[in-house]
Design brief:
The chain is mainly beta. It has one domain. It has strands at about 1-5, 25-35, 40-50, 55-60, 65-70, 80, 85-90, 105-115, 115-125, 130-135, 140-144. It has a 6-stranded antiparallel beta sheet, with no helix packed on it. It starts with a strand and ends with a strand.
Length: about 140
């Protein structure tokens, strides 16, 4: 189902209003990735869209499959012992957002499921769109 209205997740609430992204310029993308041993990093697990004004917007998935969109600053990485570590840093060039850094967000569109809340967010830039979605409880970023 599609909607321009934000439908809150029963576990995580409604988060930030997606429409608040419109007009913000994307200056940087920070993300978290899971690193295990010498394997290549997996992720991003989270992304923070850093704009030219106001707070960073955090996009991630919830344990119930919802897509969380909230205003919060990036957290520090952390060690998970035998399960590896999570690193946090600039990853703009490693995501579909790379082509849109320096551009303003023109429009957003949300999708929701009645029992889960928001499950996808499409962000439109002058040069294209990025779809952020919860897919099997993982964050998936897709250029459109």
């Amino acid at each position: 189902m599609e909607s321009e209205k934000s439908y809150g997740c029963p576990l995580h609430g409604g988060g930030a209003a997606a429409q608040s992204l419109v007009g913000r310029m994307l200056a940087e993308v920070v993300g978290s990735q899971h690193v295990y041993g010498s394997d290549a990093p997996v992720g991003p697990l989270d992304v923070w869209l850093i704009g030219d004004r106001s707070a960073a917007v955090h996009v991630t998935t919830g344990s119930d499959g919802c897509l969380i969109v909230e205003e919060s600053e990036p957290h520090a990485g952390y060690d998970m012992g035998d399960w590896g570590r999570v690193t946090v840093g600039s990853i703009g060039n490693e995501t579909p957002f790379a082509d849109h850094i320096g551009q303003s967000i023109l429009a957003v569109r949300e999708e929701h499921e009645p029992n889960t809340g928001r499950v996808a967010l499409e962000i439109s830039f002058p040069s294209g769109r990025i779809r952020c979605e919860s897919w099997a409880e993982d964050l998936r970023l897709t250029p459109m």
